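Appendix B. Extra example for self-study. Work through it before the problem class; the solution is given directly after the inputs so you can check yourself.
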Amino acid sequence: MKILNNLAKTKFWQSVFRTKLPLSTNLDRSLVIFNSLTLHIHPVKVRLRAIKFSYTFYLGMISFFLFFVLIVTGVLLMLYYQPAIPHAYRNMKDLEYVVSNGSFLRNMHRWSAHLMVISVFLHMLRVFYKGAYKPPREFNWIIGIVLLVSTLLLSYTGYLLPYDQLSYWAVTVGTNIVQYIPVAGKEIRFLLLGGNEIGEYTLVRFYVLHCVVLPLVMILLIAFHFWRIRKDGGLL
Amino acid sequence: MMEKNNSGMKKSNSENKINRRKFLISLGNTATGIVVLGGIGVTFEYLTPNVLLEIPKVFKIGPINSIQPNSVIFEPEQRTFVVREEQGSFYALSAVCTHLGCTTKWNDIGAAGNSAAVISCPCHGSLFNKYGEVLQGPAPRTLDKYRVQLEDDKLVINTGEKVSEDEMILKV
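Solution. Structure tokens for the complete assembly:
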């Protein structure tokens, strides 16, 4: 404790952390949260029951944790994967059988993805049955819906990347469903596929959506989602 | 201080009159709008490929003497069945299921209680007869029929040209 106190007096510490130590009042304690970018998504105060497991089942946090796992494993998988038809399937097989711990990483990515869809869905159910979509939280519910759709789209775009029979036909069927959208269906399908059939462009497009566009959307919306929880009066 | 008073007075006098500030704001908004719309347009154009290295729509098959009567040739690249019936009549049928686009399979011995040849889809179980008519859903309509023409002794099939039932058969 003494070492910590001395450390807190150094110029370095004070340049990193804005709140002066030691903390003596409740105001000081709340300032620690207010003055930190990483901590300020936490509320200054929580009701005791809100941190009980049975209150939320931690479903939102579990979803976020799985998203984090997916980012880490996904980035690592990207290092051995080339989104081109001659390579994609072979790279996936190499990850399974040649690369050290490749199959572990790939399975971790795969299972986390499945679990994330389940946990996001359960999270939505919990919020729904608790009535937490009601004012003033209705906008956060909408953001949640967009996050659910993004999760499903991430699952779907990731499905093509191994480029095996399963992915090929799943994407054929999926993009044909897109075709039934009124007015712009055919155009959306063409833009999505980058052509009339699944091909080289399709693989790259799905790869970019899966690795760049959708994760960015997710990160921004998750940050906003968390912030709104605090602003709308905490967990319900 | 002077400016603040002036603008305050003007605002209360004439809400709808265009003053310099309103003019510049709408000019700026219009310019931004044009740039944004243009940007969206340019992006959409960029996302639409101009050159596609896809399989050609027209293909040849033959010579017709080598195609056995009552036989089917499946062209996997073009996803097309080319059928010869007994009387030297030919037709070409798309193998793409009209439901959600899977490739169907021709079963000569029939399937699902049909003794005649059927075309079946592995994805959601649609069933068609040998002329592409729906026997069993979920396919919403008959398989596409393509124009077949004779060139020298070969059949030329154009998968870009769909024809009706009356025109589908080429008699030789």
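Self-check: The mean pLDDT of chain A is 91. If your reasoning did not lead you there, revisit section 3.
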